[in-house]
């Protein structure tokens, strides 16, 4: 398959924000009490565990998580973000145990990136929904990793920022969210509830050839690791193919972000499964763009956003943009 998609780096998840009347997201995700079907590991975990806040049994399918590949663990983390804590904790352990060997295999530098073999097929969506008419085989899948000098609370504050412009991507010029569950950001931050569920309206301008308003579904999960420290998981996805008002088809997008507290630093992972039809070859550009997102996060904290080249208070223009 020729590479005919251009990078879509989905925004990180922002903080509480109530849009002006008439400007909120046009679709809602399920409440956090909704059942989410997943498959989960056996190992030393309860064979049939339950999704937090639900009565839905979670079946198990993996006898030994240590036999998983680094890449498979990322896909399973996307799928099992809502599963009971022992299950995503098992996948995080795989990432931590195997990261050094994976980094050396990728060239030994940091930050580093890889092209992912596994695509997000229907059995890996974990309650998310793929846009009608899309094919997982058409996803371009990459992941990037680094150890951040920022502490975990710095990253948590970024993930809960109300405005993701200049944090999420250099192509996001508007990002506003509506929370759709009973878990509020303040309670989430202190561990009082999880997951944090929202929808967000996002305006992307990839180039003069491609711009679109997207409705993202977003979920955050805060975990305490068995070995100590915390982990933050965030996933986003789109549920419709969108024809950009500047051209191009924004066909599918799934993202997973992982933050793991390690003393005063934070280990970062970011995975993308995307398809954007612009008729352009992207080569290694996608992987390089994901690693640049880590530098953007660091810069935003260290310079207080002064390096931001966008208007973070840009007006809501969706209706006019889509009207042409």
Oligomer: single chain
N/C terminus separation: 33 Å
Largest beta-sheet characterization: 9 strands, antiparallel
- The average pLDDT value, as a whole number, equals 79
Number of helices: 6
The beta-strand count equals 12
Give the CA-based shape: globular
How large, in whole angstroms, is the Cα Rg?
A: 18 Å
- Which spans have pLDDT < 50 for at least 5 consecutive residues? 1-60
Q: Which range best describes the helical content: under 10%, 10-25%, 25-40%, 40-55%, 55-70% or over 70%? A: 10-25%
Strand content is 25-35%
Question: Could you walk me through the main structural features you see in this protein, from its secondary elements to its overall organization?
Answer:
- The chain has 324 residues and is an alpha+beta fold.
- Helices cover 21% and strands 30% of the residues.
- The chain contains six helices and twelve strands.
- The strands form two sheets. Strands 4, 5, 6, 7, 8, 9, 10, 11 and 12 form a nine-stranded antiparallel β-sheet that branches. Strands 1-3-2 form a three-stranded mixed β-sheet, with no helix packed on it.
- Strand 7 (196-207) and strand 8 (210-224) form a beta hairpin.
- Helix 1 runs antiparallel to helix 2 (86-105).
- The longest helix has 20 residues, at 86-105.
- It is globular.
- Residues 1-60 have low confidence and may be disordered.
